[in-house]
Structures are given as structure tokens and as C-alpha cells.
Amino acid sequence: FLKHAKLHLRPASVRSYREALGVVTEVLGEDFRATHLTNEDVDKFVAKQLQRGVSKGTINVRLRVLKAVLQ
After folding, report:
1. How many CB atoms lie within 10 A of CB 1?
2. Each residue's pLDDT expressed in tens, for the chain with a length of 71 residues
3. How far apart are the first and last CA of the chain?
4. pTM score, two decimals?
5. With 0-12 CB in 10 A as exposed, 13-18 as middle and 19+ as buried, what is 21?
6. Within 10 Å of residue 31's Cβ, how many Cβ atoms?
């Protein structure tokens, strides 16, 4: 996904995507695979981000990145 993004997006967008994917991997685990994503995984991700004090806006950005990866 990031290889494709580097070709078609601005560098700032690529950095944002890389950061968001890093957070998703950190929260859901290194063995996380987007193709096996469940609603429970998304709920867990959101809950952990809220516990860390991450704003709802930032969480939504990260969820949009995850959605883009899945498309």
C-alpha cells in the first residue's frame, strides 16, 4: 500500500499514512492482517486510542487510512 501511495500522494500524506499504519500495528499487534480485520478489532483500536487520550479527530483520520488500505 505504501509503495502505491508514494507514487500517487504528496510526501506529507505518505508520512501520515505510515504513522497511522504504525499505530494500528502497535495496537493490534505485529501479526495483524488487514484482510482478517473484524469489528472487534476496530472497537479495540478505538478504545485503546481513547484510553491514550488521542482525539476523536485523530482516531477518525487513522480509521480512514485503514479503510483506504482495505479498498
Report:
1. 14
2. 666 666 677 787 778 777 877 887 887 777 777 677 788 988 988 999 999 999 999 999 888 888 877 77
3. 10
4. 0.67
5. buried
6. 7
